[in-house]
Write a structure and sequence with these properties.
The complex is a heterodimer of chains A (304) and B (398). Chain A is mainly alpha-helical and 304 residues long. Chain A contains eleven helices and four strands. In chain A, helix 1 runs antiparallel to helix 10 and helix 2 crosses helix 8. The chains are: A mainly alpha (304), B alpha/beta (398). Chains A and B meet through helix 1, helix 9 and helix 10 of A and strand 7, helix 8 and helix 9 of B.
């Protein structure tokens, strides 16, 4: 039983990271019906920004800044940087193609993804970059009865959950949130009702990318290392989570992410790590067969 | 009338000169070849450049040193760089150029077993066959496929697996958590090691990491639950940093409550820094020696030369094969030098037969190939992470 609980916690922690990135896919898809394939790489850039801030202040012995303050700085820079990057990508690569064939922005998304990966590869580092997490946050282990988990893992889970709740409140309880939902339902009608659709889209990209940046900081603190390719694998998993939950549905992405993480750790823990990913994608296939719109998604009817 | 006569004169002069030229090579400079080329082949760019880039630097240095010592009887050897990117198809395009040019006398490489297995038949069928000396291809089939062109200076997988297993048994292992990283190399090696352990009544548990895996929490929980006293991870990639970090976070401390043995990719001192020292005390084996850890003037001078050529911190980026690559280049160049020169030409067939029969002097001592193309007495080296570097503990045989 304690083994099961420990694996369950492992899965929830990993799953919360998937959920955070999956939210980005789902927010943008919900508004624009666009698969932003560069989203995983925005996450990667956010993680690199945080690693840069950490490197700047941790090895700086002139002004000894407490670890907690550095983490706050990392969060600000990564969230702001990733958010601005997301808005920039939308302006440069998607907005000019908003009325083009639906395949066109998909291709530019892949292009932006390749560009970001290679830019970091060439200009920053082809090898992985160390994040001095030991100097920033406690590397201790929390023990509660039979379960134990590193504090960085718990931080990942708590931080993601907090941000997801905040996002949910923002989308479902604020005026701007209802503008977002209106734009998602029908962009033209929203325009007629006086909603500045361009602004809504911009803010959505900022939010989605900021979530990824936040995830990048937590990732760096948890795994102590970042590399130019890290957004690719995680992006695919997060996208899978978004589809399982029902792409376009915010609560679906959260549940899908957590579910995927738990599925991964339990199948690895109880069946075999040799087939871990097989089970993850098998789950995707089963969901698509049984419920093509995803767990929380609404069946889509083609627009006239 | 004048023009044709001049043409005839020029033609006659040409014939005369040609005759003189032929005569002089026949008598004055008997053994000076007109042109000698060798190729360096491996993944010099891309993700696998981690192993290839340092090997290329070593080969370039070997050719430079050989030429500075007079080359092949005065002829400077030209080095072709074939960046195969760990892909047999890319390699074949390069090799086609070499096969059709008789002054290309041999290849240092290919580095990856998969590339060798995909391209060796073509090199064998060339006329004359194009020989190669690999510095890192360890799959048993490389030299077990009866290709006369195939040679390697590194040890084989079927030597490494049993040697790794034997090392752990000697250290008192009772239960070994055996992991691969889902590549041809690491699965094959983990199989060999697990087989030997089981045959010697050691309990094993077999698991897999994914290529590029970051979250090892599932595996770490599994290691703890298994009660294993050794973790064995056959890997050539960058995954060990994450595994070791997360083991340490979950209170699995290498050298204290768990022992760790890695393979080629984990013989890497950067892991120690990237895990804040949690890797300290871990062991790793390699199919090639690190010259910096081998005493003797030949290896130590080479290390100095390498640093002088590529910078003081170049060793940390040189990868695991910068020693064996220099060694392989030395072997090929000496075989070429030992081959006879006829009319300014060296035949690949002669280079091939000298590779098979001669004894070569390298930075690691003398080298001779057996009938398959494996080095006689080729060794597995055990390293341990100590302080900030990987230190050679000993050479073990399979």
């Amino acid at each position: 039983m304690d083994y099961f609980l420990n694996q369950l916690i492992n899965g929830l922690e990993l799953g919360s990271l998937y959920a955070l990135v999956a939210l980005g896919y789902t927010l943008i898809y919900g508004i624009l019906e666009l698969l932003n394939f560069a989203h995983g790489d925005v996450f990667m850039v956010g993680a690199f920004l945080a690693a840069g801030v950490a490197a700047l202040f941790v090895h700086n012995e002139i002004a000894a800044i407490p670890g907690g303050l550095v983490v706050v700085l990392m969060l600000l820079v990564a969230i702001g940087g990733a958010g601005v990057l997301g808005v920039g990508i939308e302006r440069v690569a998607y907005r000019p193609l908003r009325n083009a064939n639906r395949l066109a922005p998909l291709i530019t998304a892949i292009g932006v993804s390749l560009f970001l990966e290679n830019a970091v590869f060439v200009w920053v580092s082809p090898a992985s970059v160390l994040v001095p997490t030991h100097a920033l946050v406690s590397q201790g282990v929390l023990r509660a009865g039979v379960v134990e988990t590193p504090l960085t893992g718990l931080m990942l889970f708590g931080g993601s959950l907090g941000l997801m709740i905040a996002l949910d409140l923002f989308v479902f309880r604020t005026r701007f949130g209802s503008a977002m939902r209106a734009t998602a339902q029908d962009r033209e009608a929203a325009t007629f009702m006086g909603i500045d659709v361009d602004r809504v889209i911009m803010v959505t990209f900022f939010l989605a990318s900021a979530l990824a940046g936040f995830g990048g900081v937590l990732y760096g603190l948890r795994y102590a290392s970042v590399d130019f390719f890290m957004g690719y694998g995680l992006g695919i998993k997060a996208f899978t989570a978004a589809v399982i939950g029902g792409i376009g549905n915010i609560r679906g992405a959260m549940v899908g992410g957590l579910l995927l993480g738990v599925l991964e750790s339990l199948s690895g823990g109880f069946i075999s790590t040799q087939f871990q990913d097989t089970f993850v994608f098998l789950a995707l296939i089963v969901v698509l067969l049984v419920r093509p719109q995803g767990l929380f998604g609404q069946p889509v009817t083609d627009r006239a | 009338m004048a023009q044709p006569r001049i043409l005839i004169l020029i033609a006659m002069a040409g014939v005369g000169l040609a005759a003189c030229g032929g005569g002089s090579t026949g008598t004055a400079t008997v053994s000076k070849p007109d042109k000698v080329q060798i190729a360096a082949e491996g993944p010099f760019t891309g993700p696998q450049a981690v192993i290839g880039a340092g090997a290329l630097q070593a080969i370039q240095l070997a050719v430079k040193d050989f030429n500075a010592a007079g080359g092949v009887n005065g002829t400077q050897v030209q080095l072709l760089i074939w960046d195969d990117q760990h892909t047999a198809q890319v390699a074949q395009n390069f090799q086609a150029v070499g096969i059709s040019d008789p002054t290309v006398l041999g290849i240092v490489g290919p580095m990856n077993s998969g590339v060798v297995l995909g391209t060796a038949p073509g090199l064998q069928q060339a006329s004359p066959p194009l020989p190669f000396v690999s510095e890192s291809a360890s799959n048993v089939a490389v030299t077990d496929s009866s290709w006369s062109v195939a040679h390697r200076v590194n040890a084989r997988d079927d030597a490494q697996g049993p040697a790794d297993a034997k090392f752990m048994i000697d250290k008192g292992a009772k239960k070994v958590f055996v992991m691969d990283a889902k590549s041809d190399y690491s699965i094959g090696l983990a199989d060999q090691t697990e087989k030997y352990l089981k045959a010697h009544n050691i309990t094993t548990q077999r698991e897999s990491a994914q290529q590029n895996q970051k979250d090892f929490s599932t595996l770490v929980t599994k290691i703890k639950a298994s009660g294993a006293d050794w973790v064995y991870f056959a890997d050539e990639g960058p995954e060990a940093v994450f595994l070791v970090n997360q083991m340490s976070q979950s209170n699995l401390k290498i050298g204290q409550n768990i022992q760790f043995l890695g393979t080629d990719g984990e013989e890497d001192s950067s892991i120690i820094g990237n895990t804040q020292g949690a890797y300290d005390g871990a062991y790793a084996t390699n199919i090639a020696a690190d010259p910096a850890g081998v005493s003797g003037s030949a290896t130590q001078n080479y290390v100095k030369e390498f640093k002088a050529a590529y910078g003081p911190d170049s060793l940390s980026k040189a990868g695991p094969f910068y020693g064996s690559a220099y060694e392989a280049a030395q072997v090929l160049l000496q075989a070429i030098k030992n081959s006879p020169v006829n009319n300014g030409k060296i035949s690949r067939a002669d280079v091939l037969s000298h590779l098979g029969s001669d004894t070569f002097t390298t930075i690691f001592g003398s080298v001779k190939f057996n009938s398959k193309g494996d080095v006689q007495g080729g060794g597995i080296y055990v390293f341990q992470a100590q302080g900030s570097s990987m230190v050679v503990l000993k050479q073990v045989s399979g």
